[in-house]
Amino acid sequence: MVTAVSKTKPTQANFLPLVVDYRQKLAAAGRIPTNFFRRELGPTEREILTSRLIDRSLRPLFPDGYNYETQIICNMLAVDGVHNPDVISINAASAALSLSDIPWNGPIGAVRVGFIDNEVIINPTRKELQLSSLNLVISATKRNLVVMLEGSANDILLPDLQKSIKTGTKEAQHIINEIEKLQKTFGKPKREMEKPPELSEEALEALRSMTEMRVKGIFKNYTYDKLGRDQALQEVRNGVVEAVKPTFPDIDPNLINEGYNKIVKKIFRDVIFEEARRCDGREFKQLRDISCKVNLYKPLHGSSVFQRGQTQVFCTVTLDSHESAMKLDPLSMLVSGVKEKNFFVHYEFPPFATKEIGRIGPIGRREMGHGALAEKGLMPVLPHDYPFTIRLTSEVLESNGSSSMATVCGGSLALMDAGVPIISPTAGVAIGLVTRYDAQEKDIENYQILTDILGIEDYMGDMDFKVAGTRKGITALQADIKIPGLPLKIVMESLQQAVDAKSSIINIMHECIDKPREQKKENWPVCEKLEVEAHKRARLLGVGGYNLKKLYAETGVQVSQADDTAFQIFAPSQHAMDEAKEIIEKLLATEKAPELEFGGIYKATVVEIRDIGVMVTLYPGMPPALLHNSQLDQRKIAHPSALGLEVGQEIQVKYFGRDPVSGLMRLSRKVLQAMPR
């Protein structure tokens, strides 16, 4: 169920205050939350990422100047565990907005696209997705215009990806047609927007005349860096606003600022078309200067710094035991089929990265989304049978655009520095777009695709298309589009430009480190399997696992059950592993036990009397074995005292080997007695 509500009065903001909240309740899957309150608490990571997916699909189609507070709430009512609900929620939100009186240039249609055995699969099931080399969500509008792309892939080739996008966009048209039919039958008339206040022609011309030459000069001065350019533009803004105020004292200062912003944006875009160069002097397909380093701090398992222009990220890799894997919530398990993750990326964007002051608190939606995208880009190159849990953290030290793709590059370097045997180095790049858009005809008159965009090119441009992958193929992509849909021609050209740039970046990264480090660092963790005979497991565990707890407290080594016959030993270093092995050997060490013959008769000494039988030993130093009541006598007895057995008494027993499951001795006394008459 999706609801759309928008206030009837506009806000003073010069942007669209749209909020999308997607909630998946456990009741939809027939479950009850297991927290203390037994109710849903804050939104999960999956809910936040789905909310962002819906937001990016809807936002480009709201009309310019629509600054009414709007909220879309998506409540999942039922889930079958076969079909993913996120694509349905996008289509439901599209239908809700289309039926409402809210001005919106939809509808849109969304499909999930898979690629199995060289065939494009539309809306694959959860089981099919596990076999698919592509998991891509496409939102499109009429005339095959792409509005949003987001997905991950298992190193898919560019032609296969392009084919999938074309097919998915075409399939989305069926959904659009059905929503349009619904809208014609049940849709409300769209409300009239209040015309926002505008600057008079005289004021606008005064602003333009005082702004144009100075701002053009700033954008043509290629020596400016980010802060210098921003400061120069701010000085022009202050000067122009102060100069215009006395001439037009009755105009709201916010209108003057907004008018200035529109003029600067237009000048910025015009300069790109006129000069065929960007504001930092680069050509359209040229990358910024790139530098990278690895192994910066010796105590870390893996570390790297990746710098591209004025975007710099510091990445660290931490390897830990399998016990540290991230456990997913029950509904995410049901929808994705994944119970736990042994690789996750944590992306941090502190305020100092953009020379600002801000509050450091819980992770925001943007940071969560960027971390998830980098995780998608790196996941396909990781080994499937790696024995450690991997945590990759990325802290943005400086930002001037595309920090999420810098995280992919820096993360790949840090993984190789940590010796993780990744299949291939991975890099990411952001592609931008500047268009001359005819709002009346709803058509693009002219456009220019930009490789490796700056922050200002993202802010004043029309697209932020992030693409990550190896030299061979593509592993992740995400397109944020700010105009009401892109033709497939531009999408395909952008992908081709991204693939070319990605290969160039990987070449530069190879100069720093070209394959996973093989020579071990002293502080790397180690993991080994330990085979323990069944009858010795109790000696290793101790009462209530006391021995393993003591081992962890003394050495930091964790021992966990790997399978029916073996234990997994995780040690933070080789030194700790050697120390733990010595302790384990002492725990398991016993005098060499005499070999007992199957069917042999032996003298046993009673060492303890229990309700269920007696504990006996066959030789000195032997762990006591149970001789059950059922095997004590030919007659049925309820307690060993009925036979007058005492501690220290010697009896004869027959040995029948060890139980193949528990490893316990199988002994019997009654088979040595004559059958009663």
TrEMBL record:
This is polyribonucleotide nucleotidyltransferase. GO terms for molecular function: 3'-5'-RNA exonuclease activity; polyribonucleotide nucleotidyltransferase activity; RNA binding. It holds the Pfam family PNPase. One of its GO terms (cellular component) is cytosol. NCBIfam families: polynuc_phos (TIGR03591), PRK11824.1 (NF008805). Belongs to the polyribonucleotide nucleotidyltransferase family. Its EC number is 2.7.7.8. It comes from the Eukaryota. CDD domains: KH-I_PNPT1, RNase_PH_PNPase_2. It comes from Acanthoscelides obtectus. PROSITE patterns: KH_TYPE_1, S1. InterPro entries: ExoRNase_PH_dom1 (IPR001247), ExoRNase_PH_dom2 (IPR015847), ExoRNase_PH_dom2_sf (IPR036345), KH_dom_type_1 (IPR004088), KH_dom_type_1_sf (IPR036612), NA-bd_OB-fold (IPR012340), PNPase (IPR012162), PNPase/RNase_PH_dom_sf (IPR027408). It is an enzyme of class 2 (transferase). One of its GO terms (biological process) is mitochondrial mRNA catabolic process. Residues 599-670 form the S1 motif domain. Keywords: Nucleotidyltransferase, RNA-binding, Transferase.
